[in-house]
Amino acid sequence: MRFATRLIHAAYDPDQHQRAVMPPIYQNSMFAMREIGENIPYKYSRLSNPTRQILENTVAELEHGTHGFAFASGIAGIDCIFRTVLRPGDTVVAVRDIYGGSYDLLNNVYAAWGVDVVFADLDDAAALDNILAEKRVKLLWLESPSNPLLRLNDIALLAQKAKAAGAWVGIDNTFATPYLQNPLDLGCDIVFHSATKYLCGHSDVLMGVAAVKDDALARDLGKMLIETGAVAGPMDCWLVLRGIKTLSVRMKQHCANALELAQRLQNHAAVAQVYYPGLPCHEHHELAKRQMRGFGGVVTIVLKNNTVQAANRVIQNLQLVQMASSLGGVESLVNHCYSQSHSGMSPALKRELGIGEGLLRFSVGIEDIEDIWADIDGALRA
């Protein structure tokens, strides 16, 4: 089956669930046993739940993995992954321009736990070679495209180098989704998504999901998920299953709208810089064409007046586009990354990375592009 068909039919057999067309919501915490020691597939929903299992199997299939996992939130999922593979004294290498929540987790929690955390610019693969030669790297953590500057990693090249040195390779694939790229096919061991974003697509769930191929890694990650209790609830799993069915049609529109918006913003008098991998001027445009099947639904801009006052004026004049702390829903959103998603970073680090006070990240929705453009253009001119 092709991808759009698998989104609707993957990993679900109606014959196993009273011929229900949609997977049922097993909204219960426990399952009855007839006698002591009875071996039943489901006992307690922290251990396993039929709705969660359908979602986990679906995610694994869509990402070309063999094992899937659903977590109570995106950060809960990243934490479970890190807890599974890292120990005090290990080194984790993460891309520098990383999601603020992941940065905070590594910088504030894992560094304090005794993990050596290295944030690196991996544009030049030689930088990774140097780190691998000097340190005992246990995990390479990628994010491609990155949040919010939409920079790409050469996934296959970096994964090959890290795995040759004995490291696990994980990637946050939230911005791309399985619609645009499948990192397990490029050499990664772990692919992660904040399902809160595009997989759900309707801004009504908190969840993280992951897929792996390695059986031993899957066993350890599954054990960590159960023992930490960071499991996703059945209702949330059902909502994400529902959202996944329309991922293909939504992503087509997200990508088309984002490309059109980015092209128009390039020539706007109030805009100094546009970050979007689909633009030929983007530093990783050629890599994006080679590595992805499209360019995604996020567009980031820097205002010519690169100040918080100018950014706030734009936000206050938006009527259709709402300011919010997430992305990937059907509605268009704007995020002031300096004060929202990356607020945990120091001002000096944000400046160094290019996350200025006048940077705005647009999650481009699936509304009519002319309405999106009229709203953003009007706010920029106000």
- Strand/helix succession: HHEHEHEHEHEHEEHHHEHEHEEHEH
Treating each run of at least 4 consecutive H or I residues as one helix, how many helices?
A: 14
Q: Over all CA atoms, what is the radius of gyration? A: 21 Å
Helix content: 25-40%
What is the 3D form?
A: globular
Oligomer: single chain
InterPro entries: Cys/Met-Metab_PyrdxlP-dep_enz, Cys_met_metab_PP, PyrdxlP-dep_Trfase, PyrdxlP-dep_Trfase_major, PyrdxlP-dep_Trfase_small
Cofactor: pyridoxal 5'-phosphate
Pfam families: Cys_Met_Meta_PP
Protein name: Trans-sulfuration enzyme family protein
How do the strands and helices of this protein lay out in sequence?
Layout: H1 3-9, H2 50-62, E1 67-71, H3 74-85, E2 91-95, H4 100-110, E3 116-120, H5 125-134, E4 137-143, H6 155-164, E5 168-172, H7 177-180, E6 190-194, E7 208-212, H8 215-228, H9 234-244, H10 247-265, E8 271-275, H11 285-291, E9 298-303, H12 308-317, E10 322-323, E11 333-335, H13 347-353, E12 359-363, H14 369-381
Parallel strand pairs: 2-3, 2-4, 4-5, 5-6, 10-11
Antiparallel strand pairs: 1-7, 6-7, 8-9, 9-12, 11-12
